[in-house]
Amino acid sequence: MLKRLSVRGFKSLYDTDVHLAPLVVVFGPNAAGKSNLLEAMLLLSKLVRERTLADAFDAAVRGYPAEAFSFTGPARGDQLRLSLEAELMLRDQRRLQYRVGVIMTPETGEVGLADEYLCPLTKRGSASGNPVIELVEGEIRIRRKRKQSHPFREKPGLGHTVVSNLQYAGPHYPDFDRLRDELGAWRLVYLDPRDVMRRSQPPREVQDIGERGEFLVPFLHRLRSSTEHREDFRSIVRATRAVIPNVEDIRTELVPSRGEIDLSVRQDGQWMPARVLSEGTLRVLALCAMMANPFQRGLLAFEEPENGVHPRRIEVISRLLCNASAERQVVVSTHSPLLVGQVVQMVRSGTVNAESVSILQCSSTPDGTRITPFACSGPLFEEQALREALVAAEDADLVQASLVRGWLDE
């Protein structure tokens, strides 16, 4: 689990430090930088797992790699720099601190490793022994477990992170393996219900629905066809019906003549193929599939889970998120006052432990994105805080403003 994340020099996150609970709700108006926080998490994961820094940026960053850096107009030839630092709690309750710094030369687009640090932590958060990776006197030093010999040394400027080098694995480097396993299980999902989620697919032994939902069909078919995981499939059907009451059943069917799986949903007594389902129905089905995934238990991040959901069913979505966060860390971004309000109400009513939820307010300032904890105390409907947080000061979007105002005044 990601306990704390510090981001410096990444897009609009000039200098951001946040503490995170099992369920994290990041809210704010459009263009406030919510997506950048989720993208920073994905980049951290890819830097640990991908073969090169360039591959990590290509896999994690929307836009050109240079656009990942907080570009404030340096002179030609100056280097840009970003830093990501995380404090992690593993499933066995071990704690790790990891930091990675990357530099880029804007003229050439070259990226290099500027800094890397990995150290086990005590329960109180202090260093437990020597760091296994650290930058000392201009060298990156790499220490083996219980070896008194001199540490390995690397020069800054590498085209990959040290921890992504599988040469450092096994019993001499257990913390490397733990970090790779933890961050490698993180998923950031950008659902694409317009195209890839509708396609028939051949059977695949997939463990999730894919970063765009492209493996939704084979994932559901794997669960439905497996005796071991059939109950997980049934739980997806039940959850989908709870959000969309006119959904009666879901099925996948392998068509031998094509060697592909078709997905269909029964609504109001009629079976509807995936190609004609609404985007909202596909989004909800994908959300429920992610929540019930028996194969993956790493951090799951995605944007706007309320999309396509009737406002009266937002409470069900909120409960799904809270229930899912008991098994894995869930991070969502939203600009829906309904979703934020439901989570706040669950905290205030005691339905959800306040320590298990982080509600973060995201706003745009001249100094970049500002992310601060949102206080759940006090009567929500008597405050202006939520109203102000969801409508940017310069926002002329009267529709959004009216929505927020109307909801608060009900």
Describe the model.
It is a single chain. The protein has 410 residues and is of the alpha+beta class. 28% of the residues lie in helices and 28% in strands. The chain contains ten helices and 17 strands. The chain has a six-stranded mixed β-sheet with strand order 10-14-15-3-16-17, with helices on both faces. Strands 2-1-4-5-6 form a five-stranded antiparallel β-sheet, covered by helices on one side. Strand 5 and strand 6 (110-121) form a beta hairpin.
Features of the shown structure:
alpha+beta, 2 domains, 6-stranded mixed beta sheet, 5-stranded antiparallel beta sheet, 17 strands, 28% helix, disordered C terminus
Order of strands in the sheet with the most strands?
10-14-15-3-16-17
Largest sheet: 6 strands, mixed
Instruction: Count structural domains.
Output: 2
> How many individual β-strands?
17
Give the number of helices.
10
Poorly predicted regions are: 393-410
Which strand-content bin applies to the residues? 25-35%
Determine the structural class based on helices, strands and strand pairing. Answer: alpha+beta
Distance between the termini: 38 Å
Question: Which outline best applies?
Answer: globular
Helical content stands at 25-40%
Radius of gyration: 23 Å
Average pLDDT: 88
The SSE string, one letter per element, is EEEHHEEEEEEHEHHEEEHEHEHEEHH
